[in-house]
Design a protein that fits this description.
- The two termini are about 35 Å apart.
- The longest helix has 19 residues.
- The protein is an alpha+beta fold.
- The strands form 3 sheets. Strands 1-6-2-3-4-5 form a 6-stranded antiparallel β-sheet, sandwiched between helices. It has a 6-stranded antiparallel β-sheet with strand order 7-12-8-9-10-11, sandwiched between helices.
- The protein is built from 10 helices and 14 strands.
């Protein structure tokens, strides 16, 4: 069974360094004046369920992120919200060059899969699966005995660190935790410095969160006029694939051995039905199937509509979703309903 597919925009575990100060009240500090004292490092902030990080490079604030109510803001908007968080506790540390090189992917990565249970996957195969893909992944493992993060970049596991020291070490730091067999895995993907994760909006503004690959279709804050519909053929995943959720959504390995693509017959292929052309009907199907638990799946539908995806593409994603309290067959039936709706419209 797949892990619960949702959007967990909280910041991952970050590497540690030389402590400048720890847990001081925000009101006692001048944020801009801290940057030269930090040099190269992080200023981290926490206010109950809200959290943020300010990245300092060469004594200057270079990046900032603020997460509140499950929504992530970046840049000037994040910085403005940070300044309003009067009760925030602030810590700061200096980082090594190696650790500073990891900060971009760590704070920029989009959630792919949240609440994926360690018990449900084959840990070595999961890492191998991610290594096969030409992206940068942040894999965070939380277990009863601790938490660790490992970063995979273009096929290489480049860095790992764990609580409580947060010091960068070997992959055994996370493998030892995984050996316990119980825990939660979160996978994040870094699409690069130019990727749009969530829109930078002022506090209180209505937001539509961007959806990453396993939790939902990837969406941008605006649709570009020159974007053509992207069609993804259905993927057939073998029953014995221990990481079927990732295989279904990331696509095949480079060697093509993990799963088979449906046969392609361009001469017989009809133009795809786009989600935005059936948006009200699709959302009604979701509500009828999931009732009060439909919210997360409706967000997936909205994201697919924004990104001009086909209903076939959406159905393929819905099949690997799960919501607590519902059988996996419910999502198969929902996906079939979506495809049936498309056929009815075509007739």
């Amino acid at each position: 069974m797949a892990g619960e597919l949702g959007r967990d925009w909280s910041l991952p575990l970050l590497p540690g360094g030389a402590t400048v100060f720890d847990s001081l009240p925000f009101g006692a500090l001048v944020l801009d004046a801290l940057a030269p004292a930090v040099g190269n490092g992080l200023i981290t902030l926490r206010d109950g369920g809200e959290e943020g990080v300010v990245v300092v490079r060469d004594g200057v604030i270079s990046e900032s992120v603020w997460v509140a109510n499950g929504v992530r803001s970046t840049g000037d908007v994040a910085l403005a919200q940070i300044r309003l968080a009067a009760t925030t506790a602030v810590s700061a540390c200096r980082l090594s060059d190696e650790a500073m090189g990891l900060i971009g992917p760590l704070i920029r990565s989009e959630p792919c899969c949240a609440d994926l249970r360690l018990e449900w996957v084959a840990w070595p195969q999961l890492l191998n699966d991610l290594r096969e893909r030409s992206l940068t992944f942040v894999v965070e493992l939380t277990t009863p005995t601790g938490r660790a993060v490992t970063v995979i970049e273009h096929g290489r596991q480049i860095a790992t660190f764990a609580e409580p020291q947060h010091a960068i070490g070997g992959s055994d730091l996370v493998d030892d935790l995984a050996a316990g067999g119980v825990g939660t895995i979160r996978v994040l993907v870094d699409r690069g410095a130019g990727s749009a994760s969530q829109p930078e909006q002022s506090s209180g503004a209505a937001r539509t969160a961007a959806a990453p690959i396993v939790t939902a279709p990837v969406t941008g804050t605006q649709r570009r006029e020159d974007d053509a519909p992207r069609i993804t053929r259905p993927i057939i995943v073998p029953d014995d694939d221990p990481n079927a959720t990732l295989s279904a959504l990331f696509g095949p390995h480079r060697d093509g051995s993990t799963h088979l693509q449906a046969e392609d017959h361009p001469a017989e292929q009809q133009a795809p039905t786009l989600v935005d052309s059936l948006l009200p009907q699709l959302k009604l199907l979701v509500r009828n199937r999931l009732q009060r638990s439909s919210g997360s799946v409706e967000e997936v539908v909205d994201g697919a509509a924004t990104d001009r995806q086909s209903v076939e593409w959406l159905a393929d994603r819905v099949r690997v979703m799960s919501v607590r309290g519902f059988l996996h067959s419910t999502f198969d039936q929902l996906a079939d309903d979506m495809l049936a709706l498309t056929r009815r419209q075509a007739d």
